[in-house]
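Illustration 12: Dihydrolipoamide acetyltransferase component of pyruvate dehydrogenase complex.
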Amino acid sequence: MANVLLMPKLGLTMEKGTIIEWYIGEGDSFEQGDIIYSVETEKLTNDVEATTSGEILEILVNEGETVEVKTPVAKLVGYEEGDAEIKAAAEEEKKEKEETKPKAPAKKKKSSSGKVMAAPKTRKFAADNDIDLNDVAAFAGKDTISASDIEEYLEKGETAPAEKKGSSSMRKIIGERLTESWKAPHIYLKKEANADALINLKETFKARDNNVSLNDIISFITARAIKSYKKINSIEKNSGEFEVAENINLGLAVAVEDGLLVPVVEQADTLSLEELAVKSKDLISRTKENKLSPDEMQGGTFTITNLGMFGIDEFTAILNPPQSAILAVGTIKEKLYLNSDNKVNSKKVVNLTLGVDHRAIDGATAAKFVQILADYIENPYLCF
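Figure caption equivalent — predicted structure in C-alpha cell form:
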C-alpha cells in the first residue's frame, strides 16, 4: 500500500472535504495522535489525527482546496511509486489543480533553530487561537513549546487572534443555503401562548433535581404536536415535490462563532422528556465544541430556533432546506390583562412564529398546527 494520507470520510453523508489548515509541512515528522490538518465539511471543521507515525514527503492538496473523500492529500516518506492506483489518483488530482490555478507553496513549519516540537493538545490549543507555533518558538527562544508558552505569548500581547480559518468558508456555505431557502415562498403565522403551565412544569422537574430546561420542554411539546398533525412534517424530495416524512427528526438551531449549526435529534417523538433533554444537551454541547460529525446534522424534518435568552420578543426564521417548516420561539415575559371581573392580573406569555414553505403547506394547515402547539404549551401535561 502506498504511504499516503487520504481525505477521510468523517460521516456517512460526507462526499467532499476542504483542507482548512496544515499543522505540519513538508519534511516534518509526526507521531500517532498528533493533529496533522483540519478539514471542513458542511460547516463543520474537524481536526484529523495521525493513526501512525510518519513524515510528510509532499503535500498534494493545499489549504482552501476541496477534494472528494479517499483522495490522497499528502505523500509520506516511503511512498511507493509503484502503487499505480494511488499514484494515478494523486497525479490526476495534481493535474487538475495545475489546470485550474497555480499551486500555492506548501506551508513550512520552521523556527529559528529547527522544527517546532509540541504535544497534540498544545498544537490544538494553538490552532484554536490561530497561533503559529513558529511565532511562539521565536518569542520563547526555544523549539519545544508548551501550552503555558502560548498563554504567555497571548498575555504579552504579541498577537491578537485573527479570524479563524474556516469561518469565511462557513459564511459562504450559510450564504448558499440562505439563497436556496429564499427561493421558497415563505409565509409566517404568529401566536401568543400562555406560558404559566410551562414554567410550573419546569419547576416541578427542578424540585426533583431533574435539570430539564424550558428549551427541552418546548422541544418535547413540539415533537408531540407534530406527531398529532404530521402534515407539518413535510420535506422536499425533488425540486417542488414534497412528501410527509415518516420520522420526526427535530433540528435544534445552535449559534456558534460566525455562524449557525443545526444538530438533529432523531425520532424525537419517541423520546421521553428526560431522554430528549439528555440527547439535546449532548448535541448542543458538542456543537459548541466543534465535535459533531456531519451525519448528526443530516435528516432533520422540522427545526426549532429560540432567541428568547437574548430578550427577543418575536422573530421570523429562515427555512432550513429541504424542510418545509421552522418554529421561532421568543422570550417569556410578563403581561398584564383584565380578567372577567375587570381586575388587572398578570401572566407569563411566549410568542411563537411558524414559518412554512407555502408550496408544501397552506395557511390553514399551518394555522391548525400553531393552534395545537399553543394548546400543548398552555396544557403541557396533555403531552405525557
